[in-house]
C-alpha cells in the first residue's frame, strides 16, 4: 500500500475534526491544530502521489508525514494522559500512532514500491 493512500484520508480526518471542534465549541486551538496538521499531511500526500505518477519516491513527503504523525502522537498522547478523554485526544493519538508505525515501515522498506514498467 502506498503512503498517499492513507495520508490523504488521514489529513482529511484531521481537517474535519478541527473544523468540527471549532464549529461546536469555538476552539481556535483545535481549528489551528487540526486544520493545520491536516493540510500539511494532505500536501505531503499530494507530493507523494505526484512523485508516484512520475515513477519516483518522494522521501521529502515521507519525512513530512512521519514527523507530523510523530508530533501528533506525542502531543495528543500527552493530552490523553492528562485528561483520560478518548475524544479527541485518545482517538487522534491512537490513529497517529498507527500512522507513525506505517510511515516507519515505509521508510524501512524504501518508500513506495514501484512496479516494473509494462511493455
Automatic annotation (TrEMBL):
Chief site of localization: membrane
PANTHER family: PROTEIN FATTY ACID EXPORT 5-RELATED, TRANSMEMBRANE PROTEIN 14, 15
Sequence intervals crossing the membrane: 6-23, 28-47, 59-77, 86-105
Keyword Membrane: yes
Gene3D superfamilies per the UniProt record, alphabetical: Transmembrane protein 14-like
This protein's name: Protein FATTY ACID EXPORT 6
Localization terms from the record: Membrane
Family matches, as Pfam families: Tmemb_14
InterPro entries: TMEM14, TMEM14_sf
Species for this entry: Stylosanthes scabra
Family per record: Belongs to the TMEM14 family.
Keywords per UniProt: Membrane, Transmembrane, Transmembrane helix
